[in-house]
Design a protein that fits this description.
With 419 residues, the protein is an alpha+beta fold. It has eight helices and 24 strands. The longest helix is centred in the middle third of the chain and has 23 residues, at 214-236.
Length: 419
């Protein structure tokens, strides 16, 4: 029979020696995660973000963000139509002299012009002339009558502008032909993502310091992992269909892919140095020209530090004994609207994006999830997916969806902000 290995507590009696065997441990019931909030864009899309930090009573703190518009789709390929019906500023395709009786426009612009329509011509000198199209509507050569209400004709270069005005009709005249709106159908695709979680029955039965429900703990941790990975896909995903041995694998084009491939009119500002207040306000003004007057700016630390520094020396503390200094700017109001700032850790972690900021019009960002025939594949958890002969409980988070980025010119990319 083995001899029990019983040893007396050696040494002077104190907490150091007693903690080895008999003192009760004091363990904080909360779990602290280093990277629990690294998905600001995903949190803006889904209103079910979790900080994964338990309070003293074992309750999770839920961080909720404003959701974007969520719309189901019935096909992995979802489409939408972009219309350019509001275009009204054009460059002449050739110089226009003061005595010319025609204005040449590009073949892309020709469909916008109708016979009987008036044009406002403005040159670099600020001279203005109104003309009327008398023939050649919807062709590249517009025959015009000059000096409508003007005292003299002006000349234009190809860098000057011609602005579309209404069609002016005579009394009791017939209506003009309808102008076909210029539009194009764009598309993106959903992606099938998942993150599994589970515990053996022995793990479930083992009590831990931080959780009364260890399965709920790993379930929420899996959601955190999935949303971090979705954050990468939302920014950097490339639209594609990959062939596997059985079924196709759909990939969703993310923010950068959409802005750089679906559109040619996304404004880009190259700061090329320190982001000063005049440079920022000029960029913000450009971002407000189209779409909503309330935008969200995702940016890294270089941009945040620069913007917080705008008020340095301009705000005097009301209390001379104040012990807290510095400012935290979370929104910025411009003449054209307001923007909210959201720190994006990826813009610091991904070296190629250091000094990048992206202005998004969240009204033109949509979440499309696959749903039809009684199946809803928006973000959700599916339980009890373990095999029948396994002594475990297993589940997984599943989502089949993708981003829809529309109206490219309502967004903006800012690059090369130096910290």
């Amino acid at each position: 029979m083995p001899t029990p290995n019983i040893q007396p507590i050696a040494g002077i009696s104190n907490t150091g020696t007693m903690n080895i065997s008999i003192n009760k441990r004091d363990v904080d019931p909360r779990l602290f995660y280093l990277d629990y909030d690294k998905y600001p864009l995903a949190s803006a899309i889904f209103a079910m973000g979790s900080s994964l930090e338990r309070d003293g009573e074992g309750v999770y703190t839920v961080k909720r963000g404003a959701t974007v518009k969520q719309t189901p789709c019935i096909n992995p390929k979802f489409e939408w139509t972009e219309s350019d019906r509001l275009k009204q500023a054009f460059h002449p395709a050739a110089a226009v002299t003061a005595v010319a009786t025609s204005v040449t426009v590009s073949s892309d612009d020709a469909p916008y012009f109708l016979t009987g329509q008036h044009l406002i011509m403005i040159n670099a000198a600020g001279e203005i002339e109104e003309v009327r199209i008398t023939a050649g509507g919807q062709t590249t050569t517009l025959t015009v009558s000059r000096n409508v209400g003007s005292t003299g004709a002006i000349a234009l270069t190809t860098g000057d502008y011609v602005y579309a005005a209404p069609v002016h009709r005579a009394e009791n005249s017939t209506s003009v032909d309808a102008n076909q709106i210029k539009s194009e159908t764009l598309y993106n695709q959903v992606m099938f993502l998942s993150e599994s979680y589970g515990l053996t029955r022995i793990q479930k039965a083992t009590v831990s310091f931080y959780s009364g429900d260890s399965y709920d703990q790993v379930r929420k941790e899996a959601l955190d992992r999935l949303k971090q990975r979705m954050e990468m896909a939302f920014w950097f995903g490339r639209r594609d269909v990959l062939n596997s041995t059985t079924n196709p694998i759909y990939c969703n084009g993310g923010i950068f892919w959409s802005l750089q491939n679906l559109f040619t009119d996304v404004p880009t500002v190259d700061v090329g140095g320190i982001l000063t207040k005049p440079v920022w306000e000029a960029a913000a003004g450009k971002a407000m020209r189209h779409g909503s007057r309330n935008k969200v700016v995702f940016l890294g630390s270089a941009g945040l530090n620069a913007i917080n520094g705008f008020v340095s020396g301009t705000i005097a503390p009301s209390d001379p004994n104040i012990k807290e200094f510095g400012t935290l700017i979370t929104s910025y109001r411009t003449a054209g609207g307001s923007v909210s700032f959201m720190y994006e850790p990826l813009f610091d972690e991904v070296t190629a994006l250091n000094g990048t900021a992206v202005v998004l019009d969240m009204k033109n960002i949509g979440w499309r999830y696959l749903a039809g025939n009684g199946e809803n594949l928006n973000l959700h958890a599916e339980e009890d997916i373990q095999e029948n002969d396994r002594s475990v409980k297993k589940g997984e988070w599943i989502v089949v969806g993708g981003l829809q980025v529309s109206t490219g010119k309502s967004h903006m990319i800012i690059i090369n902000i130096q910290g």
